[in-house]
Automatic annotation (TrEMBL):
Family: Belongs to the phosphohexose mutase family.
Keywords annotated in UniProt: Isomerase, Magnesium, Metal-binding, Phosphoprotein
UniProt key word Thylakoid: no
UniProt keyword annotation of Metal-binding present: yes
One GO BP: carbohydrate metabolic process
PANTHER family tied to this protein: PHOSPHOMANNOMUTASE
CDD domains: PMM_PGM
Protein known as: Phosphomannomutase/phosphoglucomutase
Domain Alpha-D-phosphohexomutase alpha/beta/alpha: 8-133, 155-254, 262-368
Domain of life: Bacteria
Gene3D superfamilies membership: Alpha-D-Glucose-1,6-Bisphosphate, subunit A, domain 3 (3.40.120.10), Alpha-D-phosphohexomutase, C-terminal domain (3.30.310.50)
Organismal lineage: Bacteria, Bacillati, Actinomycetota, Actinomycetes, Pseudonocardiales
Organism in which the protein naturally occurs: Amycolatopsis suaedae
Cofactor(s) the protein requires to work: Mg(2+)
Length: 457
């Protein structure tokens, strides 16, 4: 029997090509996905892939599995993940995107969705797919499906431009670091003909990532972008991850703009279109986000970390927008799916419709100092979490909740969240406080407990 326990994650399928993922395994996964979505009366699946060397072959194997179960395939070829979501939404078809996002070149993976870009996670289909493959995919006696090709890039770009109008922007010079990922494929189409000069960096599609990892949340990977913004006197810089569903922003000084700040800025723009709307934010975003949403007449709703939770809550509440600390941004007008490109367009529209530099514009949405994510390797996640809870829970004016890991709100307004990793023996710490000194002091206090060498308080 096959064992997929090492590659079926909470939100997607991901593993090392040739060791954990190969054509045979992926063919079976395709067949199992076809069986899953037949219950939704689906008759076709749309498939896209990124620029990794292994992606076209794995996508083709997946298509073989789907068609072997009698369903048709619409192949859109090279695509960003949000381009695949666009295809799933606009064609109303379930979809599969072959990418390992920002992971190194040896990895690949599959992000799956139902029709309308509805997420497929561990509890909404991935578990069933794993069980079907491990138990053996039943053969289908009917006729095989067929594969057709369709280019949706121009339609994707046109749709985004209906959601954010940049045609009236003042002229802007924007450096874009695609990290040799799919941003190099989508950015030229999206910004073609607009009053925005794109200064491209690493637009060549290369799944070996020869310049730097395609993970813009790691400060080391935006150094080139920061330098180029300052060198050419750009108005801003954008950095996309490998599959271009996340976008990170730097201002005209080359300084990073926190994703929480982007969340607040975009939320205000969306609330201007729909006053009183609901905005989703995960529990690690800055507390400035719910404050600003409330001040602008919106309703903030707090969720766990992760796209399946965000999308589920958006569907339940009718939310117009959602943002995460990891630079994932979700839009009701984009089938509640995440698209870094649309968030970037909102930022550029806000910048281009007034005369201030981006640093001044975003200052209004940045209120507190944050630590960023601090990871600690621990032997016993549960024991360390309990030790931190015991240490802080009894303090006067302190509030504790366990929606996702442990969140502690302190009497002075500072807070921290400590979450276990789902895949590694790590605890992830995020802190926010009034200033950098307060963040550092609180980090020292929490980490002293988390990293206690003897495993005791």
């Amino acid at each position: 029997m096959a064992d997929l326990s090492g590659i079926v994650k909470a939100y997607d399928i991901r593993g090392v090509v040739g060791e954990q993922l190969d054509a045979d395994v992926v063919r079976d996964i395709g067949a199992a996905f076809a069986l899953l979505i037949k219950s939704d009366t689906a008759s076709s699946v749309v498939i896209g892939h990124d620029m990794r060397d292994s992606s076209p072959g794995l996508a083709a194997a997946f298509a073989e599995g789907v068609t072997a179960q009698g369903l048709d395939v619409v192949s859109i070829g090279l695509a960003s993940t949000d381009q695949l979501y666009f295809a799933s939404g606009s064609l109303n078809l379930p979809g599969a995107m072959f990418t390992a996002s920002h992971n190194p070149a040896k990895y690949n993976g599959i992000k799956l969705c139902r029709a309308g870009a509805a997420p497929v996670g561990q509890d909404s289909g991935l578990g069933e797919i794993r069980d079907t493959v491990e138990q053996g995919v039943p053969e289908f006696a009917g006729a095989r499906g067929i594969v057709t090709e369709r280019d949706v890039l121009a339609d994707y770009a046109a749709h985004l431009r209906t959601l954010v109008d940049l045609s009236g922007s003042r002229p802007l010079k924007i450096v874009v670091d695609a990290g040799n990922g799919m941003g190099g494929h989508t950015v030229p189409s999206v910004f073609d003909g607009l009053p925005i000069e794109i200064v491209p960096m690493y637009f060549e599609l290369d799944g070996s990532f020869p310049n730097h990892e395609a993970n813009p949340l790691d400060p080391a990977n935006i150094v080139d972008l920061q330098a180029k913004v300052r060198e050419v006197g750009a108005d801003a810089g954008l950095a996309f991850d490998g599959d271009a569903d996340r976008c990170f922003v730097v201002d005209e000084r080359g300084e990073p703009v926190p994703p929480s700040t982007i969340t607040a800025l975009v939320a205000v723009r969306e609330l201007a279109k729909e006053p009183g709307g609901t905005i989703i934010h995960n529990l690690i975003t800055s507390k400035a986000v719910p404050e600003i949403v409330t001040e602008h007449g919106g309703k903030p709703v707090r969720t766990r970390v992760g796209h399946s939770f965000i999308k589920q809550e958006m569907a339940a509440t009718g939310a117009i927008f959602g943002g995460e600390h990891s630079a994932h941004y979700y839009f009701r007008d984009f089938w509640r799916a995440d698209t870094g490109m649309l968030a970037a367009m909102h930022v550029l529209a806000a910048l281009g419709e007034q005369d201030q530099p981006l640093s001044a514009l975003t200052a209004d949405y940045t209120r507190y100092a944050a630590s960023g994510e601090i990871n600690s390797t621990v032997d016993d996640q549960a024991a360390r979490l309990l030790a931190v809870k015991d240490a802080f829970g009894s303090r006067a004016g302190t509030a504790v909740d366990e929606l996702d890991g442990l969140t502690v709100q302190l009497a002075d307004g500072s807070w921290f969240n400590l979450r276990p990793s789902n895949t590694e023996p790590l605890l992830r710490l995020n802190i926010e406080a009034a200033d950098a000194a307060a963040v550092s002091a609180l980090a020292d206090e929490v980490l002293a407990i988390v990293r206690a060498s003897d495993g005791k308080d």
